[in-house]
Amino acid sequence: MLTVTPSGIYCPAGDFYVDPKGSVKRALVTHAHSDHARPGHDSYLCSNPCLPLLELRLGKKAKIEGIPFGQKHKIGDALVSFHPAGHILGSAQVRVEVAGRVFVVSGDYKPDGDQTCEEFEPVKCHLFISECTFGLPVYRWKPEEYVLDRMNHWWSDNSSEGRPSLVFAYSLGKAQRVLAGLDPEIGPIFLHSAAYEFLEPYRQAGIVLPQAEKVEKAKPNDYSRSIIIAPPAVEESGWARTFTDCRKSFASGWMAIRGQRRRRNLDQGFVLSDHADWDGLIRSIAATEAESVRLTHGNGDALSRYLCEKGIDAGILDKTNLITMREARE
Ligand SMILES: [Zn+2]
Ligand SMILES: [Zn+2]
């Protein structure tokens, strides 16, 4: 039904991979982040709202097909459908049904509110392959309204001192989510070009975003009352020096770790994640009613132990345990 190969999760019944590495014939892609949507495959299948983002990521030459959420699609002997993962716009969990057995590959997901993407949909299955990026009880998120309200206050304070506010946020998903929560009354909003290029597909998908401008190095600007959203990659580069006397912050789940903010020389940390927190993982996994759970993307030891105590056949996804599970159950 399902195996793990060096290229990634493979379904022999349908001869396809989910979020593969290397170069394969058919790739099903959960979402357009670069660690899931890699170039070099012969063909791609994704959710409809993911399609324009994937085109931006992979270029127009890539052979990409989109299907609506929930629509069943036959590939070989497998029945495949995409279901909202609530991670970023168009992000999907992949449901695969072979001979009456159902498995779901979660990709990245979050069950919490986010006005910039489709709401997470729990999908019932026998086997759930879950990410666990933040699979420790120390990770517990506050509602996004609370975090974004704090960010607006921070911006407003900086603005009244005539200091630009710089927010580091991943260019796809997080940057748009931050933008959607900003109060344009406070001042002008700017985005680094890497985040700016994704605004159009978001607006096309009907996501309401405040007016924002692209940072143009050649065009000097008075940034003293502005907020600027930029990818964390430019943090160490000279890029930020354009913004004289700026205050710096980072919007990420990693800001929940004590000392992170100081170590990175940030004035402020906003704990805002596009992944499920500890409670979110447990709640979402329970909602699938899966008898088996395999964890990937993160250290799954604590979560795996917790699930086993609840009587679920849980473990870390590796080459052997999926196959073992299959044999044990058939
Ligand atoms: Zn992702
Ligand atoms: Zn990921």
Explain what this protein looks like in three dimensions.
The chain is α/β, with parallel strands linked by helices and 330 residues long. The chain has two domains: 3-138 and 275-329, 4-Layer Sandwich (Metallo-beta-lactamase, Chain A); 144-270, Rossmann fold, CATH 3.40.50.10890. The protein has helices at 51-58, 144-160, 174-181, 193-196, 199-204, 260-263, 278-288, 301-309, 321-329, and strands at residues 3-5, 8-11, 16-18, 26-28, 43-47, 64-67, 73-75, 78-84, 92-98, 101-105, 127-131, 165-168, 189-191, 213-214, 227-230, 247-251, 268-270, 292-296, 313-316. The strands form three sheets. Strands 7-8-9-10-11-18-19 form a seven-stranded mixed sheet, sandwiched between helices. A six-stranded mixed sheet has the order 1-2-3-4-5-6, with helices on one face. The protein is globular and about 65 Å long. Mean pLDDT is 94; it is low at 326-330. One zinc ion binds next to loops.
Per CATH, the class of the largest domain reads Alpha Beta
Which word captures the global form? globular
How many discrete structural domains? Answer: 2
Rounded to an integer in angstroms, the radius of gyration calculated over CA atoms is: 21 Å
End-to-end C-alpha gap: 11 Å
CATH architecture of the largest domain: 4-Layer Sandwich
What's the order of the H and E elements? EEEEEHEEEEEEHEHEHHEEEHEHEHEH
Tell me the helix content: 10-25%
Number of strands: 19
**The biggest beta sheet, please?**
7 strands, mixed
* Ligand identities: zinc ion
Name the average pLDDT. 94
Instruction: Give the structural class.
Output: alpha/beta
The total of helices stands at 9
CATH superfamily of the largest domain: Ribonuclease Z/Hydroxyacylglutathione hydrolase-like
Strand content: 15-25%
